[in-house]
Automatic annotation (TrEMBL), chain A:
InterPro entries: ABC_transp_permease
Protein name: Autoinducer 2 import system permease protein LsrD
Key word Zinc present: no
Source species: Kribbella capetownensis
Entry's localization field: Cell membrane
UniProtKB/TrEMBL annotation, chain B:
Protein name: Autoinducer 2 import system permease protein LsrC
Classification via Pfam families: BPD_transp_2
Its biological purpose: Part of the ABC transporter complex LsrABCD involved in autoinducer 2 (AI-2) import. Probably responsible for the translocation of the substrate across the membrane.
Principal location listed in the UniProt entry: membrane
Length: 325, 339
């Protein structure tokens, strides 16, 4: 790849990233100005907590989508992790061993996806629609429609608490640390370059010495692990383990990632844009909820954003091409 | 594989595979029915069979529409939401004008669905957006619109005209109207897909969109057409849903898309497009409905149902993959260039 091409590419990413970050800032300013309680420090805490599961799961999802695959089972993995957490807590297991177990469970569920996609070579869309149903079904088998509450206050307080005397939520640490880790891996390591190479062309990547199967497998494991973590944090935040926790979250995650400028066809994307996409989606939902828009109606916004985020760049490109010819 | 030795290798070997594929579902069904009946003879009573057939009718109409879309290498995840919108629309319509003939209600339901299908199809065609993204989006948009409109309200059976509810319960020669309607949809779609030029073009598009375009097939128009069929059938299924259950709220049909995709995939329609039949999809619908019903009869926890649906999807695509690999290997041996 010539330096010139890299430069052109960098410029294009920069444009999209600048655009989406600018849009996010505008939404934040407008929301703070028009919605009464949006700009308060208390709402900032709620906003971060609302963002938490989308932000965490969007990180590995970005890498998965850049390789040209998809993982629709993340919300069900979150739900199963939450259900198992409740089941074990009900069985009087110590929380210190439950949490690592739930993370391990998430990694195993991700590995199952990875095996189907890489070893059997099945389309990830079909596989993860299958495991979306399977994992959610297992969550209901484990916990039924009951809820488990009364998790230890030390943990639930930490998740909903803030750092020292500031109004910065504790969980923001987790988001920032993981975002930095995933950002560095994607944009500054050979693993990240392999991810882009596989997404741009699997055959070519193989000739260049990348093993696409192994890479994808570990990305699915990461996706499962982070979804398991999101399940634990979700349970602790509401102090309620339920089988239907996080149902439908995959839509918001995929919407945020695509909104962040990641191409659904793979090979293109950048993590700062995805973070902006998450914040944009989250703050829009938060502001609308504060304006008494119901949750079901919020889904209209998420659905429209999802379609527009893919439609807009395509339309822009075809307009540009028409002008050139 | 003896099929490979026949003169027209590709067609005949695929035919044999598909026949075996559908045979597999029939065997699975027979085993399931036998096991369930042995443990509880009540399973084969008239009422139980009627329930299974009615449930299958709704799922099969959805699965036939989905099969048409999947054959073109697309997917329509919005069917459950379209069903809900259509059911609520016809419910409201019948509340206001109870004297409408059933045929008009069916047409209105299908029209509501067709409009949703046009939106899906146009976004896929003109926006160059993958069907997965478009229909995942419209799944939530359409459901949201229904919630906006319905709010928390519910339409109950006593608010619907008795003529319409009769349509949901009445039978001809012991076969419910809903089942006859589903069979009609199945046969018409099946014949069009198998014997008509338009139908064959859909398969060609699914096998290779580029080749189909080079062969002069209007790929864009056919794509929209496939989504309109899927939408219209989902709308029709909404009317059947309303007639069967009589109780409709904004959540009607939530999560149906999973069962529909499962029925289609289990029925042997490949998710890569280009192969499979609506007969298989309908058999898949029958199998899934029978499983749900035998879980109840066998007194197995109902919560297992969704997990079984997921497991079946994985099993079906895994099995299809293995068969496809073997067929491809067989064809390669004969020096054919089909991959």
């Amino acid at each position: 790849m010539s330096a010139e091409l890299t430069e052109v590419r960098a410029a294009r990413f920069l444009n999209w990233n600048v655009a989406i970050i600018a849009l996010t800032v505008i939404v934040l300013i407008v929301a703070a100005a028009t919605v009464d309680s949006f700009g308060t420090s208390q709402n900032f805490g709620f906003l971060v907590l609302d963002l938490l599961p989308i932000a965490l799961v969007a990180l590995p999802m970005t890498l998965v989508i850049v390789t040209g695959e998809i993982d629709l089972s993340v919300a069900s993995t979150l739900g199963l992790s939450s259900a198992v957490m409740g089941y074990l807590w009900n069985a009087n297991q110590p929380i210190e061993s439950i949490i690592p177990l739930c993370l391990l469970l998430g990694a195993v569920l991700g590995a199952v996806n990875g095996l189907f996609v890489t070893v059997l070579g099945l389309p990830s869309l079909a596989v993860t629609i299958g495991t979306l149903a399977l994992y959610r079904g297992l969550a209901f088998v484990v916990l039924g429609d009951s809820a488990v509450a009364d998790f230890p206050a030390v943990y639930t307080d930490w998740v909903t608490g803030t750092i020292g005397g500031t109004s910065i939520p504790d969980v923001l640490i987790i988001i920032v640390v993981l975002a930095v880790v995933f950002g560095v891996v994607l944009h500054a390591t050979p693993i990240g370059r392999a991810v882009f190479a596989v997404g741009a062309g699997e055959q070519a990547a193989r000739f260049a010495g990348v093993r696409p199967g192994r890479l994808k497998f570990w990305l699915y494991v990461a996706s499962g692990l982070i979804s398991g973590l999101a399940g634990v944090l979700w349970t602790l935040r509401y102090s309620s383990a339920r089988a239907d926790n996080g149902a439908g979250l995959e839509l918001a995650v995929v919407a945020a990632v695509l909104l962040g400028g990641v191409s659904i066809f793979g090979g293109k994307g950048a993590l700062p844009g995805v973070i902006a996409g998450v914040v944009l989606l989250g703050s829009l939902q938060n502001a609308l909820r504060l304006s008494d828009v119901s949750n079901e109606a919020l889904n209209v916004v998420t659905g429209v954003l999802l379609i527009v985020s893919v439609l807009a760049p395509n339309l822009a490109r075809s307009v540009l091409q028409r002008r050139r010819t | 594989m003896t099929a490979v030795d026949l003169p027209a290798p590709r067609r005949s070997s695929l035919d044999v595979v598909l026949k075996v594929r559908e045979l597999g579902i029939v065997i699975a069904l027979a085993v399931l029915v036998a096991v369930t009946t042995i443990s509880n003879p009540r399973f084969l009573s008239g009422q139980s069979i009627r329930d299974i057939l009615l449930g299958t009718a709704i799922l099969a109409v959805l699965a036939v529409g989905q099969a048409v879309v999947v054959i073109t290498r697309n997917i329509d995840l919005s069917v459950g939401s379209v069903l809900g919108l259509s059911a609520f629309t016809v419910g409201t319509l019948l509340q206001n004008s109870p004297r409408l003939p059933v045929i008009v209600v069916l047409v209105v339901g299908a029209a509501v669905g067709a409009v949703c299908g046009v939106v899906n199809g146009a976004l896929v065609r003109f926006g160059n957006v993958p069907a997965l993204v478009v229909t995942l989006g419209t799944l939530y948009v359409v459901r949201g619109i229904t919630y906006f409109w319905a709010g928390g309200s519910q339409i109950n059976a006593d608010e619907l005209p008795s003529g319409f509810l009769d349509f949901g319960n009445a039978t001809v020669l012991g076969i419910p109207y809903l089942v006859l309607l589903a069979i009609l949809v199945l046969v018409v779609t099946g014949v069009v897909l198998r014997n008509y030029r338009t139908g064959r073009e859909l398969y060609a598009m699914g096998s290779s969109p580029q080749a189909a375009r080079l062969a002069g097939i209007p790929v864009g128009r056919r794509t929209i057409g496939a989504f309109v069929v899927s939408g219209a059938l989902a709308g029709l299924a909404g009317v059947l849903f309303a007639a069967r259950f009589g109780t409709i709220d904004a959540a009607a049909g939530t999560g149906y898309e999973l069962n529909v995709v499962a029925a289609v995939v289990v029925g042997g329609v490949a998710v890569f497009g280009g192969s499979g039949t609506v007969w298989g999809a309908a058999l898949g619908a029958l199998l899934l409905t029978t499983i749900a019903s035998s879980l109840a009869v066998l007194e197995i926890n109902q919560f297992w149902q969704q997990a079984i649906v997921g497991g079946l999807i994985l099993l079906a695509i895994g099995a299809d993959r293995l068969v496809a690999v073997r067929v491809a290997a067989g064809l390669k041996k004969r020096g054919s260039h089909v991959s």
